[in-house]
Amino acid sequence: MTAASDASARPAPGAGPILRVAGLTGRITGQTVIEDVSFEVPATGVTALLGRNGVGKTSTIRSILGLIERTGSVELGGIRIDAMPTHRIVQFGVGYVPEDREVFAGLTVAENLRLAERDAAPRREFIARLFPDLVARRDQRAGTLSGGQQQMVSLARALVNENRLLLVDEPTKGLAPRIVDEVAAALGEAARTVPILLVEQNLHVIRALADRVVVLSGGRVVFAGAASELLDDEERVQRLLGVHDASEAA
Ligand SMILES: Nc1ncnc2c1ncn2[C@@H]1O[C@H](COP(=O)(O)OP(=O)(O)OP(=O)(O)O)[C@@H](O)[C@H]1O
User: Fold this and answer.
1) For ligand 1, atom 11: residue with the closest CA
2) What is this structure's pTM?
3) How far is the CA of 118 from the centre of ligand 1 (A)?
4) Sheet order of strands, 46-50 included
5) Domain boundaries defined on the chain
6) What is the ipTM of this complex?
């Protein structure tokens, strides 16, 4: 494992949740978009942040990163990060894969990855193993890649550094089913090395990846618990998420 510059501040593994959010209220142009949100993310596995469209999932992620105006406390490994500027939060070990797959369209795949490298020993071999397609396309301009391939670049950019937590926002949105499976498989592999807070709408993916779930409604947490506790309750899934579980219907 690589030693990040602030590794000495790293909590011992298993020492409790990696992320603790308490009383988080976020505002966009003066409008409250999440209110008094509290939840924890365990130090391993995938925690899915769920809810119907517009309930505040992206706003929660952006609040954690200090990208929107917010109050409340955010602890990473027991250390308060809510007073830090966003770039410091990222340096402290919070990786972010935004919803809109931010890649540099005019740069090659290799250049996109190189620009993301922050650690002294970036995890290039890990990335190459996880995304062999990107190795084959290393000299291709990112703007000419498919949506799924761009998502791989976006994920790879976050995974090349050793993070304490990864925030991944709707990585499978708009992708073809086969590509959804590929992205989910890569996320599953990644989750063996870093805890992930995942915003996801696809129940099939949630079922495959999530250990725990946090459900938002109207900007507030309405359920937090084991993924199976939610997913095994069809009525609750329908009520909280507004979707049927396609895997059950199949
Ligand atoms: N830039 C903005 N300006 C004003 N209101 C916004 C802005 N971005 C989000 N909102 C509002 O904040 C609320 C929460 O939006 P947010 O994107 O966090 O929800 P979400 O659960 O991620 O939605 P989706 O599933 O559709 O991505 C919504 O009511 C939305 O209209």
Assistant:
1) 33
2) 0.90
3) 30
4) 94-97, 165-169, 196-199, 46-50, 210-217, 220-226
5) 17-249
6) 0.93
